[in-house]
Records
---
Amino acid sequence: SVPIAAGTAEVFITASIGIASTSARVTEATPLLSNADAAMYQAKKRGGGSVEVFGEAMRVRVLDRMNTEHSLHRALERSELRLFYQPVVDIKDSRAIGVEALLRWDHPEQGLVTPNRFIPVAEESGLIIPIGAWVLHEACHQLRRWQMKRCGGLQGAVEVNLSARQVDDPEIVATVECVLTETGLSPSDLTLEITESALMNDAASALGVLRGLKDLGVTLAIDDFGTGYSSLSYLQRFPLDILKIDKTFVDELGVAPEGSKIIAAVINLAHALGLQVIAEGVESERQLQELERLGCDFAQGYLFSRPVPAHELVDAFPERIGA
Ligand code: C2E
Ligand code: MG
Ligand code: MG
């Protein structure tokens, strides 16, 4: 814990310790080491500089994670992944301006699994790279199919979520370009959603990636705004087009007068920087009215539609069929 002098700088180092034990009868070192390793990673996850002991709860978690990773590998091969789509609506005239593609895993035993339960494992294992490429391809292909049929009110864009790991991938710009060429989708019909934390990992490299994507002609959105670092400088620094206000802020609308203040400020800030604003997780008419009053551009949420499979989206917007 004592700082180390490196030239003129002082370097602070923390140690994370994982402890595992085993009975005297077990002579194999590998499982013991891997348990200690898992405990150490847990200690690191808690911020480092701490000690963690491998116990029963961790064993269950590690096994569960390994199982998920194993079956996630197969999910890709066995085509168990699905995309659901949720419309994004123009607050002025209630028309869908696009759809967000949201990943689901049609698990053979567990049924439909939501992304929060498997995306973290996909990210840790690196599987998010092939999965993300599949999502991009499928979403662009689906929008292209809709465009050919000209139905479902989908002259708009498809929004695809990129994970931090994908933003770090040196191939990401090439992957997006390749998907656009393969599917024949115009770059302006693709919006990529990136969270604040993905930009903060390595801001300099993220900036390069975002510029590369922007040069392809795609639209860039910052997702879950307000839940992460909310650094105002990067709103200006990164070539962003859309800001998505997180649901937690929308939830506060109409509850207390202060509830509107943050959203009002964020909308003004975004507009001043030339960004358009989407409010996420809009569930009530009252929230929508308040968002309209505050000058928010677009909204998305259960009030309009839950995320649904592609074929159901057409039913959700019957007035647009054949438009
Ligand atoms: P997100 O991108 O912020 O997506 C919005 C989430 O809010 C979705 O959850 C959506 O179903 C949910 N939502 C929308 N409207 C409402 C509402 O009115 N009320 C409530 N309670 N919830 C609403 P979902 O589909 O479970 O996705 C969760 C997160 O998983 C996404 O958050 C996104 O960060 C991630 N995700 C989803 N699909 C992908 C993907 O293809 N790739 C990556 N990397 N991440 C994905
Ligand atoms: Mg999103
Ligand atoms: Mg979001």
Note: Residues 81 and 269 are 38 Å apart (CA to CA).
---
Amino acid sequence: MNTRWMVVGAVALAAAGVLIGRGSKPSGTVTAPVAAPAGLPADAAGMVQARQLSPQDVTAALATYMPTGRYDDYLMFASGGHSGQMYVIGLPSMRVLRVIAAFSPDSWQGYGVGVKESALAEAQARDAGLRPRSLTWADTHHPALSETQGDYDGQYLFIGDKANGRLAVIDLRDFETKQIVTNPIFNNNHGAAFVTPDTEYVIESSQFAVPLDNRYAPITEYQQAYRGLATFWKFDRAAGRLALDQSFAVELPPYWQDLSDAGKLASDGFVFINSLNTEMATGGIEEGNPPFEAGASERDMDYLHVINWKKAEQVVAAGKVTTMKGLRVVSLPTAIDEGILHFVPEPKSPHGVDVCPEGSHIVIGGKLDPHVTIFNIRLIQQAIANQDYEGKDPYGVPILRFDAVKEAQVEIGLGPLHTQFDNQGYAYTSLFLDSSVARWSMGDCKYQAPEGPWKLVEKLPVSYNIGHLAAAEGDTVNPDGRYLVALNKWSVDRFPSLGPLLPQNLQLVDIQPPGEGMRLLYDMPMGLGEPHYAQIIKADKIKAWDVYPEVGWDPLTQAKSPHASYEGKVERAGNTVEIWMTAIRSHFEPERVSLAKGDRVIWHITNLERTRDATHGFTIPGYNVAASIEPGETVTVEFVADQEGVYPYYCLEFCSALHLEMAGYFLVAPPSAVGAPKLAASAADETTSG
Ligand code: CUK
Ligand code: CUA
């Protein structure tokens, strides 16, 4: 029996209430091989007592502790709010494994800091004519893992930028962002990103109504000129890119659309989008109007938008569209005439819409309503077929009769927002105002909870102000149960004070087995930008590369780079100097580059390493360049040598014992001193093998 298991045995004993006093040892317990921190007894039972851990604390610790070298069962992909990035977190350990640079520069990853092979650089260049300035951040809200038949397939990850109406595509072979697209005719979103069951489309729906095509119209023309928009970005899986020319959008009334979710199985072909502000409040508190928070909350009902995207696809194929800036748009009148768009009334200020694993039920959380409301897709389809309307909205969109499509309402508490599912017939809804998670039973489901349908089962308090929650594969056709993470907006007193800006608190909850109640396992302070939504995937579904497939790889195109080189060389054409540099432990080649002020520099660097984790970096003082060149990767930096002087370039990653020697000199002479420019690819650098 190895020592670790003996310690675990001792802790389990302690958890069972057999607490042993300091100094005495239970039979079978051995002293831990490593000395405990000062002041702590070395044996498990003694530690339990000294740290005053309850049996619940001990089992929670055992449930989350990850011995060195052991891997987590799940990976959670969390958005990063206005950090503009994505986070990868292991479950159940709650260790942050990676940040993925998406919309914001990150010098560690060599992203957006001088390297040309980056989605950010590509988007900035492309949008130069479309947007007045280069964007270097985003407000990321909703990640979406790519799906095959409604299940996560572990291939791609999409993330929406609420602030600027953009989407990013991340390839999970190397966890790098490959593409940033900008909606050509709309400047914000919220219902993004959500995918259809085979990732045919990535959905991006708007939040704040504005005139389409980024035009100006006075706010007094709000009802005539302002609109919402649901964009269906076609995903070309083979290319790993969203394709604007195969995408389309559906024009919506100027309500504020909120979250969306794609139908699946029973509801495949539909997309559901919540809305608020069907009052069409336009603000103007300074002119005596009600403030938005009151003006947008006057009516008892808002509208769930039900869009038949398969029908919309046919209408688009038939050419019944207007094309704006390359995006094909189905107009609101066409969407109504063709039966693409219907409304379902939903109670006060809805927020989350979540489709159950079988696709049959659509769960709505109303921020100002203590219930979740559950609609049934069968009833919705019947009501559409029978034209069972309770009226039309001011734009002529038919509104289905609430009682004809509602299956149930369950009173669960204050401020219901978002819902996830497990494999035992339960749904889990975040309660923002209650600061708790409600577990309630679904009805008419593949799995049926023993409590019977539509019952509140229990509530678990969380700290504090929970927004989204994420259960293991809990928004797919095949949820896992086991774990749930509460993404709490506030942490208040949970962690030591580090000043007025506090971390969020991500709390790991054990939701299995259901009979024993939900158990809080771990508080994880998130001292990085605010995660909104997260998805949790089985770790073994991710098939990431250990190193790039070939030496000379361009991660942006996921193909061999034309600029790859196995040896160092420098060439001049006119006043352009092109450098092909190799990097391998522990040297660059060349180690000297000499040119004249005013020369244009194109500098390619190939990391020749095939060893896992042998990453090198590259920087030059004052030129705002930070590259990360991972094993096999080729990167390019390009600039004008506009400052004369002597610039030591060096490797940024502590790659070997001789890492400090991994350097070179970039010598920028005054123009006159060089005359006919002399180039020096250092002949002194003789070693090329690794
Ligand atoms: S929203 Cu943040 S708590 Cu943008 Cu998904 Cu509901
Ligand atoms: Cu390469 Cu340090």
Note: The domain at 74-103+138-280+298-541 is CATH 2.130.10.10 (Methylamine Dehydrogenase; Chain H).
